[in-house]
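Appendix B. One record, verbatim.
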Amino acid sequence: MGHKVEKSDAEWKAQLSPAEYAVLRQAGTERAFTGEYTDTETVGVYHCKACDATLFESETKFHSGCGWPSFYQPVTDTIEYIEDNSHGMKRVEVRCANCGSHLGHVFPDGYGTPTGDRYCINSIALTLEPRPQG
């Protein structure tokens, strides 16, 4: 695949919890409205849980009401896009460009945002680094 971070399946399983592995490495989805960052308003930077690559900034996060953290734009060149026709839907899957881990999907329904996009991301795929205040 040519990612900067490449590990064997066994290495990913050793690093990630079973729930993290199911989402990040098997393209699973956490249940709506259950994720740690769904309603978080903490100022900071969101990183990939698998490889720590910077993905999103809190300034691009918005409340979409979809049940998962939503962002209108990623940090430049941090996301790869894959056509996803599973479950009888036509969607665009988003993965970490650094390690290839599944993050969620992007939809063109981020109405009222600067880009018009809604990156619907699994909380379990992210870690939040709060920005120091003051």
